[in-house]
Amino acid sequence: MEKVINKVKASIEKMPTLSPVVHKIIDVANNRSSSAQNLTDVIQLDPVLTAKVIKMVNSAYFGLPQQIKSLKQAVVMLGINTVKNVALSSSFLGNVKLDKSAVLKGEDFWLHSLGVAVASKMIAVKLGVEKEGIEEYFIAGLIHDIGKVLINNFFKKEMAEIVEMSAQKKYSIIQVEKHILKLTHEEIGIAIGKKWNFENALLYAAGKHHQPALQGSAAIYSMVVCIADTYVKMMNIGFSGNYKIEPVSEDVWKTIGLDEPAVYDALSTINQEVDKAKLFLK
User: Fold this and answer.
1) What is the pLDDT of residue 42?
2) How much is the pTM?
3) How far is CA 195 from CA 101, 149, 192, 218, 275, in A?
């Protein structure tokens, strides 16, 4: 066990880090006294990221009524928190890659992650989450399986065994990972998130989406991502190595105040929304 933990720690150090600018963006966005200009000034430190953000905000995903020509205009139109999450999503997808020689296929894996991101956002809308907080759910869904990236890239033999055993559909992915690797992608996801200074919302999404927390300010993110993950798997949007689909627990349904018909209603246009969001993967 200790040997596995040490290898995981070493592997986290080898994983690409997010741009230093992204951490500054998060700090500025989380400071209530920050202005649109403050955020603009920080993002502009990274010209590539600046271009990506402007491209994103002008996409069909946001459906804005007018063309955005400057970063400052984007921040004013969409809000500091939304632009923060667009920048974080862009940096995350631009830096984190799946090893092509390993088991998981990048196209399928990222389509699953994008599907969970979109579904999480749509469920948050159904829950009545305020507009400025909606994109937080998108990024929570997007990064939820980050632990699998590490397993796939640095524990290739074990990942092959995990996927093979998961295909038998006898055990949950968490049980399979514990049996083969002694650690789960949730536990590894939390470790990566802490290394990258993720907020609690993202730590809960990466570390508790199979066994959601029911209490605490960030618990809602683990519950929403759990539901989104389950239904995206049922709808066959992408593939992340997990064959067994586990039902959402009654405790989660009761705590979050939704049921299956409400979720199907919320996700009625998910395929169209995923198509719009595919720009994030380019």
Assistant:
1) 92
2) 0.92
3) 26, 15, 5, 18, 32
